[in-house]
Design a protein that fits this description.
The protein is of the alpha/beta class. 23% of the residues lie in helices and 20% in strands. The protein has helices at residues 13-20, 90-94, 97-109, 134-137, 153-164; strands at 27-28, 38-40, 53-56, 62-63, 71-77, 82-88, 117-120, 146-147, 150-151, 171-173. Residues 1-7 have low confidence and may be disordered.
């Protein structure tokens, strides 16, 4: 996982390739749209389509995922040698982005959630993920994940991963919050 920060907040494939020290022609990226889609990539392609997840079993492709306060996951199934990257914010959570990511891995390569290793980058903590009216803005989210105007998006994602069958021992999450501890 590589974090590229720019003063204007805009990331491009050129910026990402430069930060990684690789040619842009090695990237496997999508145009992230804060939705629920995941795309399979079989050859290096920059901004191949509208999606927030990208998966491949082809060596030599550097998958990318860009985020600011949203959650970013890297996934690896060592039994099938499949790797993926997923950007999922609150809109992606509502759109079923996590579930679709695992569905694509299963449909394309018969990956089973119990075999997949997951790494999560920092994102907003439950204190900083504040909404005007969580009940209206995030319909269907359990009240157990809300406290006043704040929503535990990390907890929601972790619960979704658990419900899908990802083993607790196969999940690792970097600590820190992108808002209250950006220096981490």
């Amino acid at each position: 996982v590589c974090f590229v920060e720019k003063a204007d907040g805009a990331f491009s494939d050129d910026d990402t390739a430069h930060a990684l020290g690789i040619p842009k022609t090695q990237l496997g990226s999508v145009k992230q749209v804060h939705g629920g889609a995941t795309m399979r990539i079989d050859a290096p392609q920059a901004s191949v389509g509208d999606a927030d997840g990208v998966v491949t079993d082809v060596r030599g492709i550097t998958l990318t995922s860009r985020s600011a306060d949203c959650q970013t996951f890297v996934a690896y199934d060592p039994t099938k040698n499949v790797v993926g990257a997923l950007h999922v914010g609150w809109r992606g959570v509502l759109a079923g982005g996590i579930e679709e990511f695992f569905a694509v891995m299963n449909r394309e390569w018969n990956c089973e959630a119990k075999d997949i290793l997951i790494g999560a980058a920092p994102s907003l903590c439950k204190t900083c993920a504040e909404f005007t009216d969580p009940a209206k803005e995030l319909p269907g989210i359990s009240e157990g994940f809300t406290e006043g105007r704040c929503v535990d998006l990390v907890g929601i994602a972790d619960k979704k991963l658990q419900n899908l069958g990802v083993l607790d021992a196969n999940r690792e999450r970097m600590t820190g919050c992108t808002k209250c501890s950006p220096e981490q």
